[in-house]
TrEMBL record:
Lineage: Eukaryota, Viridiplantae, Streptophyta, Embryophyta, Tracheophyta
Boundaries of every TF-B3 domain copy: 19-112
Name used for this protein in its record: TF-B3 domain-containing protein
Subcellular location: Nucleus
PROSITE patterns assigned: B3
One Pfam family it belongs to: B3
Keywords: DNA-binding, Nucleus, Transcription, Transcription regulation
Organism, scientific name: Nyssa sinensis
């Protein structure tokens, strides 16, 4: 018998990638810098540049400096990523790290509903 906690651990380590953090995107995340949850794992120290691949294989360069108060956020090409990939408020962002490859991966899950067998993506502000 497997608990749901074990299931999460197994799925978060798929393909040699370990889940660093998962976040439901806010409007501030989309227009400014993405605020990183406190429990995030495997982030570089200081102001080092992270190489990040998106779902389409495009390479991005993010940094995650600490703000006053200790909170971290994604900066540098984050705004370019948000303009290009066009995530929406309420979408789920998953951020993974692969120690083998020394690279991060970002995965975006669109907020959607299924209605009469058709997937409908919910627009901003709804």
């Amino acid at each position: 018998m497997t608990s749901s906690g074990n299931w999460w651990w197994l799925t978060s380590r798929m393909n040699g990638r370990e889940l660093s953090f998962k976040k439901k995107l806010s409007s501030t995340d989309l227009t400014r810098n993405l605020e990183i949850p406190n429990m995030a794992l495997h982030l570089p120290d200081g102001n080092q540049t992270m190489r990040v691949l998106d779902q389409n294989g495009r390479l991005w360069h993010f940094k995650c400096p600490r703000r006053r108060g200790g909170r971290r956020c994604l900066t540098d090409q984050w705004r370019d990523f948000a303009r290009t990939v066009t995530p929406r408020k309420g979408d789920i962002l998953r951020f993974y790290f692969s120690a083998e490859e020394g690279v991060y991966f970002v995965e975006l899950e669109r907020r959607s509903i299924r209605l009469f067998g058709v997937t409908i993506y919910i627009e901003r502000g709804l």
